[in-house]
Amino acid sequence: MFALIWKDIVLEARTRETLPALFVLGVLILVAFHFSLGLRPEDTSRLAAGILWVAIVFAAMLALGRTFVIERDSGCIEGLLTSPIDRGSIYLAKLTVNTILLLAFEALLVPVFALFFDVPLFAHPLRVAAILSVGTLGIASTGTLFALAALGTRAREMVLPLLILPLQAPLLIAAVQATDLVLQGAALDALGVRGTLLVGFDVLFVTAGWLLFEFVLVD
Known about the structure:
Elements: H1 2-15, H2 18-37, H3 41-63, H4 66-73, H5 77-82, H6 87-117, H7 125-151, H8 156-183, H9 193-218
Helix pairs in contact: 1-6, 2-3, 2-6, 3-6, 3-7, 3-8, 6-7, 6-9, 7-8, 7-9, 8-9
């Protein structure tokens, strides 16, 4: 499992393709919102969290499945099938790589977001980082599972969002609301059902992905 994680990370570090593309897409989304909405200060505080998560989700659609495309193009899918590796471990490895990639993208995007929309993201950095990490894990867990299922279709770029966005809707609603509360100064233990939903979503889909990935990979 750790060898698979290291392989994908080294490959991404060498090619340097995905992370710059994600950053450019995320910035373009922020620029579009910033200049098209013409937000006033009172509107910014109300909409900032939603704008941030829209940028993250749309960029994630580009990133998720990237590791499987590389495996398919290099003919490594068959090697994974015949290797003496637990199929669930393959899922966890790909999930880890996708999560690291998205978190690295967010680390670059968040300062730009704070600059554009003048929100106090750095007033409570650990709380914001916690919400982003938990939400990102939920996005990556569903995306990693269904990216492989969409890989076999001709229009995988269109199929993947249709598969995972409806599933991610509860996660995104909770993530936006939790981020908004944290930006207003709320503590993590004051998030209530939103925090519970974020953690529960992660546990559910990471477990489901680990159990179901073998059947998706074989198909």
